[in-house]
Design goal:
Elements lengths: L1 H4 L4 H6 L15 H13 L6 E4 L5 H13 L4 E4 L12 E8 L15 E9 L11 E6 L4 E4 L13
Parallel strand pairs: 1-2
Antiparallel strand pairs: 3-4, 4-5, 5-6
Helix pairs in contact: 3-4
């Protein structure tokens, strides 16, 4: 799937505020070895975050990873193929896609800040007040943070009395 979805790109990680020298990448030939590496990473207590990519995730595998993440207080982000069926054992399920970049502030022909469309599809804890429609997030390289793109922010309408 690296052919389809690409691989981690050190300058891209740095642009997102992540030091590429602190990233450990494990690639395996078999899905079960990938799942084992993810679970061991979650159990190690030495990692701030474990990100894994698997084509599909079975209910049993998802439950094991969820329990390991919870027991060892290590967040896990699992990327699956866009056409893979959803798994019920995950705490949340998000759909993330590309979006057109923001307008460049000084040159209309140049790309601006990168944008992504995100949608919370499922949350075990309930929606938590999150919108049921997709949001467009914009990465700000200056602040090293995502922000909701201006044109997708909910607007409040004042009603006269």
């Amino acid at each position: 799937t690296a052919h389809e979805l690409g691989r981690l790109y050190a300058p891209g990680l740095a642009a997102l505020g992540l030091d590429p020298s602190l990233v450990v990448v494990v690639e395996t030939r078999r899905a079960r070895d990938t799942l084992w590496a993810i679970e061991e990473g979650l159990r190690s207590r030495g990692l701030a975050l474990v990100i894994g990519h698997v084509e599909r995730l079975t209910l049993t595998a998802a439950r094991r990873l969820s329990l390991a993440a919870e027991a060892h207080q290590t967040p896990a982000l699992l990327l699956t193929h866009p056409h893979a069926p959803p798994c019920a054992a995950t705490a949340t399920r998000w759909r993330i896609g590309r979006s057109s970049s923001a307008p460049h502030p000084f040159d209309t022909r140049a790309p601006g800040d990168p944008r992504y469309t995100v949608l919370l599809e499922r949350s075990r804890a309930g929606g938590g007040g999150l919108p049921s429609r997709p949001l467009t997030l914009e990465w700000c390289g200056d602040t090293q943070r995502f922000r909701v793109a201006a044109e997708t922010r909910p607007t409040l309408v004042a009603h006269p009395h």
